[in-house]
Structures are given as structure tokens and as C-alpha cells.
Amino acid sequence: MRRHLLGLALVVGPACAAAQGVRVTGVTAVQGIELRPLVYDSIAPYFTVGAGEWRLTPDGTPARCLPNADYCVFQRSGDRIQAAPLLQDLSFSSWGIGEGVSVHVDLRGRTQLTTQGLIYPRSDTHFEVMDAYADVDRPWGRARLGRQWIAGGLGVYNFDGANLVYRRSRYSVEGWAGRALEAGLNVGYSSAELAAIENLPPDQNGYIVGVRGRMRPNAVTSATATYQRVLVADRSGLYSERAAFDATTRAYGVSLDMALAYDFASGAWNEARLRLGRAGLHTLGVSVEARHSAPFFETWTIWGAFSPVAFNEARATLDWRPGSVPVMLSAHGAYRRYNESDAGFTLRSNGWRAGASALLTGSSEFSGHASYDVDIGDGASRNDARVSVRWNPGAERSLGITGSALQNIYEFKIGTGRVMGLALDAAAPITSDIRLMADVGFYRQLFSNGAPGPDWTQRRASLRLEWTLGRDPGQMGKAQ
Predict the structure, then answer these.
(1) Residue 96 Ramachandran class (φ > 0 left, ψ -120 to 50 alpha, else beta)
(2) Which residues of 465-476 are buried (b: 16+ CB within 10 A; e: fewer)?
(3) Res 334: pLDDT
(4) Virtual CA dihedral for 136, 141, 145, 151, nearest 10 degrees?
(5) 3-state DSSP call for residue 173?
(6) Where are the domains of the chain?
(7) What's the predicted TM-score (pTM) here?
(8) Which of 151, 238, 419, 445 is the most exposed place for a label (fewest CB within 10 A)?
(9) Residue 265 burial (C-beta neighbours within 10 Å; 0-12, 13-18, 19+)
(10) Residue 195's closest CA among 182, 208, 180?
(11) Rounded to whole angstroms, how far apart are CA atoms 257 and 280?
């Protein structure tokens, strides 16, 4: 933490002294979460159903009965435990330090208001510097120095270092380099947080280097090519080496989107997608998509050793917006084909998904949305339905109610589990610079067809306060 605070002072201190404008925004959020953890219990063999090592309890829960043992052991849902995490996000921006110079800092603090048996993820990390960088913008390009992130066809990567963009006409080249942080977590590769979730965490820090080229030859066409390496600190090996290409264009009312991502370490295409779509054709929109997808794991993780199976998918979407009715209807369907798993026994090699939704809008204060989706795969399936109604009387006020029904048939297990939910949410401004949002949800898990499993019935609630100090630099000189 001392290192974070020292770096933050070096970046922010001089900026505060020289800045002509400062804007601070904050989000204070607290949640209440319930869970019923699994606990071990025992039962006499006489009361079980079946014979052999694996049997069933009277309510259908699997129990293990070892030879000559006095009791059979099984897992059941324990008493409810609770967590109440409190998060405080602060965003700091300053400008007017010099021509095109600004400083940006995002901080996060977290703790738990109660610890009744449930430790919320990362709650023991009470302070983090999400980003802290100085930005210099010039007509020829842009330069950044400090803790920052890069996003694109390879995902989001955080790093401490430098980023430089050179622009010329409709083309640009960007390069970045520095100390790599775990993607999306803003912590180092050798941090204790990673060690807690990975059996084989990297024993050295990583360094990231990347380059990206963009071109926009006309108003409807753009293309981006990216190459990035994350190296072990002593350069003895790679954590990852990947490349991506993204492009989009539009002609004769038809849009074309392409995305490619290649992993040099495994020699696999993680993503290859081509989408054709047309919107506004007599209030009818249609798109078709072909996709190849394979999971990506960096070389320091153990998960890549399990040779995850890739799949090919074809997908189609149909949208209909009748001109005389404030409603939009949509339907989609997709079919997947999995590669051979080499598991030693036959597994289902295909799957499909489908869904439909309806969105009701208009000039009134009320809107509504309903959807249903189903996903069928190897050994498991999932479907869920949602219906929501929202009231927006204006002035950033809203009140909504959402009902949901989620059904899971778990991998290679018999039986059905359903989760029925009802949630309320509301938002209202307190002042022009302060806004309050709250929600509460009730979820009930039901079992049928002899489905075993833990009871995830729970209640959830959250309260969120958003506030701002200072004016947006883009609104300077304008009425607020």
C-alpha cells in the first residue's frame, strides 16, 4: 500500500498544485448478501436408499457409504450466513495544468460491515489504486504515463507504464509497455490474491508490451490490428503472446463485422467471428453470424493443461419494429458443434440456444420488457425468463419491478432446479450532484424430479450513492 500511495502522490501532487480545474466523483455502495454453505452431515446406512458405496438419503441427496463404516457421509445446506460489503470508489480528474495536460485517478476502498461466516471476495484488500496516470493530448497524438489499462480485441489489460498514440489523417499507431497487472483486477501477477485462487501462481512479475494500428479510410469503415506479449520478468518465457484483428464496414444497407484473435503460445484461434446484418428493412432487421471460439488461458495457469474444447457456432437474429406500435420484438437462434474431446468416452458434440424478447416503449412514463432464453449443451441445460416493468416520471427518477425464473439441469445429474426471483429497484436525485439508488431481491430455489443439491434460497439488497464535486470540463462556461 505504501508503494501505491507514494506513486499516487508523485502523479497527483504536482497536478493539484498547478491545476485550474478539479472534478471528483464518488460512488458509495453497500450490499447485503445471504448464502447457505454446504456442510458435511452423516446418516446411518439403514436409512439410505440403494446399495454399494454411493446411495441416496430419503430426500434424494447422494451419500457415500464406505465399507464397514457406521455412517454414510453427505453434504447438505447449512444455516444462512451473511455478508455486507461496503465499497467506496473515488474518481479524480484535473486539467488546466498545461495545454492538453490532465491527470486521472481512480481509487477503491472496501471493507465488510458484518462477517457472519461469509467472506466477500477481495474484502481483505482494503485499498486499491485502479488507475493513476497523466495524459498529454496534442494534435499529433496522445501520451500517458502511470497506472492505466488497454482494451481491445484481446480483452482488458491493466499495467503500470507508458502509452503513446501517433495520429495522422485517418490512421493511427499506438504502443504501450510496462509492468503487467492481472487483467481486470489491478493487482500484480505475483500477488497474494492470485495465489489464493490459483494452485500454481506465477513466481515472477510480468512485463507487457504491445502495438496497435488503426485505420478509418471512410466514414463507415474501420479496422484495427493488435499484437501483445506478456513476458516473465527475467524474459525466460511468456505468459501470453496474442494478436487480434477487428474490422467493420457498411455498404448497400448491410453491415459487416469481423473479429479474429490468435494465441501464438498454443497455436489456436481463440476467436474467429463474421457477422452480416441489415437493419431498417421495412421495419425488419436481420443478422447472421458464424463463429469459432476456443477458451484462452495464460501459460502460467494450470487450466490450459485440460485442453478445453472449442466449438463452431452459427447464429441468426431477427428484429421487428412495427411503425405504428411502440414495441420491438426480437428472436434469435444458434447451433453449436464441439470439437472432439478425447475424454475416453462418448459425449454429446452439439448444442443449441434460442430466445425471444419484447420491448415496450413510448411517450408515456411506463416501459416494459420480457424475454425468454434456453441453452442446451453437453450434459447440462439452462433456461430463464424475465419480465420487468419500469416507471420513469422524469428528473432521473425511476421505479422498477422484475420477476425472473431460472432453471438449471446440472451436468450429468438427474433432476431439475429452479430459482424464482422478485426484485424491486428505485432511483432518485437528492440534489443536482447527488443521486441515490436502491434495490432489493428475493430468490427462492425449488427442486423437482428428485433433484439433489444445495438450497440457494436467499435475499439480496444494495444501496448506492453517487455524488460529484466540481464541474465537467466539457461543460465549462455553460449553464449547469
Answers:
(1) left
(2) bbebeeeeeeee
(3) 96
(4) 120
(5) strand
(6) 1-37+78-132, 41-71, 139-308
(7) 0.80
(8) 151
(9) middle
(10) 182
(11) 18
Contacts 24+ apart (CB under 8 A), 371-374: none
**Rounded Cα gap, residues 224 and 20, in angstroms:** 36
Query: For 259, what's the count of Cα atoms within 13 Å in the CB-facing half-sphere?
Result: 14
Provide the b/e sequence for 57-76 (b: ≥16 CB within 10 Å).
Answer: beeebbbebeeeeeebebbb
Residue entry with cell 480545474 = 21
> In the chain, which stretches have pLDDT less than 50?
1, 5, 412, 414, 476-480
> Residue written as cell 466514414?
219
How far from 140 is each of 102, 199, 449, CA to CA, in Å? 17, 46, 66
Residue 229: all three cell numbers together: 506479449
User: Are 83 and 474 spatial neighbours (Cβ–Cβ below 8 Å)?
Assistant: no
Q: Note the pLDDT of residue 237.
A: 83
Parallel, antiparallel, or unpaired: how do β-strands 268-281 and 284-293 relate? antiparallel
Helix (H, G, I), strand (E, B) or coil at 421: strand
Contacts of 58 (CB under 8 A, 6+ apart): 47, 49
